[in-house]
Amino acid sequence: MTEYNNKNISIFSDLNDLDYLRLSKLQAIGYDVVHFFKKIPTFFVNLFKAAIAIIKGFFVKIKDECVDIVTTFTNGDWKTKVSYLVMGFGSIARGQILRGLLFLVFEIVFIVYMAVAGFYWLGKYSTLGTLKSGSVYDPILDTYVRVEGDNSFKILLYGTLTILFIIAFIYTWRLNVKQNRIAESILKSGKKLKSGKEDLQSMMDDEFHKTLLALPVFGIFTFTVFPIIFMILVAFTNYDAAHDGYSNLFTWVGLSNFNSLFSINTGTDNLSFAFGEILSWTLMWAVLATFTNYFLGMLVAIMINKKGIKFKKMWRGILVLTSAVPQFISLLYVSKMFAVNGVLNGILVKWGIIHDLSEYLRLWESPTTARIMVVLINVWIGIPYLMLIATGILMNIPTDLYESASVDGANTWQQYTKITLPYMLFVTGPYLLTSFIGNINNFNVIFLLSGGGPTNPKLLTSAGAAGDTDLLITWLFKIVNGAGSKYYLASVIGIMIFVVVASLSLIVYNVMPSTRNEEDYS
Predict the structure, then answer these.
(1) What residues does 143 pair with on adjacent strands?
(2) Looking at 55-69, 116-130, 275-289, 390-404, which range is the least confident one?
(3) Which of 207, 271, 327, 337 is 20 to 30 A distant from 187 in Cα terms?
(4) How many domains does the chain fold into?
(5) Which whole-number Å values give the CA distances from 6 to 3, 9, 23, 392, in the listed order?
(6) Residue 161: what pLDDT?
């Protein structure tokens, strides 16, 4: 057992708050690191238990719903029984015309859609099409006639929509059953049911929040949730430029795309190596881009806010002007400025520092200098925004805290680490998290500055070449827009980006002071 300060306090054992406070800073860091790794097995055990509990709860819920459906049918009157086949009949028969008509119209639309198109798309969904487009000889016309075949893309799209429509119908049918059970209970208790007019009044009064949120929820599902579902499904197909779904059909391939990404092969088939390299640089970039901007922006704000500094508004105005220029313009300009034939080399030639082409600075052609350049330029465009955020927060820190700390003998560094930094981290914790996630997907800075380059021969894969400054998001862009247009692989990488971002977000969010120690700053 390792002992500290001759008090038999071990960083490997669980300490109470008093013993923890007795540790030095180095010992406290060691204790936190040791117990972080000790908690990892427990975390996964709890995660597994939570997953089992969710699955168990799901099946229990299904069982309860089935029991309720059978019980409602058994104990219900004839109006309720008819409603199992004709949705809304019970509501109409009991005088709730508006509710009943909505249920009935939805059922009619569903039946018509399934008869006209739904069963067609579902019938081809398992194969995503078998009939290819081509030319067939027509003996009557004595010529070849174009015959349109299946379209795998449309089958995947409309087939998925049909499945979601069926799920929506089942859910609505279940609401119809519940509505009949509730209506029977109300009538048996001697109360009156709501009329259509009362339903409309309720939608504009106590249920107005549902009315107000209906359209945004529908929009989110249509333009956010459904595209995500469609993208996930593409990852299980061989959809690419060679299998566009029209001239050449694509089909389901199961988990083979995930196997190719994580299998260790050789040559251009080694996607796992490229994914690991790009993922490691993506995380490194996200950390550097987030915290360099954060601490340097805070430092600039502290310097400008310091007593005795003149022309504070002017300094802030100068910094804000740099962020007022659109990034598309400023990043492209800076990229060309540091290019081989750019302004920097031109100035060095004019000053006589560079004499021939071999001495030109090739900042974007070296992996190390290219990565350093994108981090530094990101600092240049990120500091002004962080400076403005930090300025507003610093002005709200009570000056009494600094005055008390000065009286107690705290120096500038101690005041920063004990007062300024904790307060800043508490207030800006959520911003740090979103900034970190944003930098993982920071397409603009990388693509407009270096284009992901310089190209690394070790990252040459069957999906195309990747560079040393490529992030997962820029690599995904190259895969989609490359010669092969491997949409399925881009979808797999998109799923992995989501897994990485979601995992890090959950971990960081649960350790942020903003969510754990809120009472300390209230």
Answers:
(1) 138
(2) 390-404
(3) 207
(4) 2
(5) 6, 8, 12, 46
(6) 96
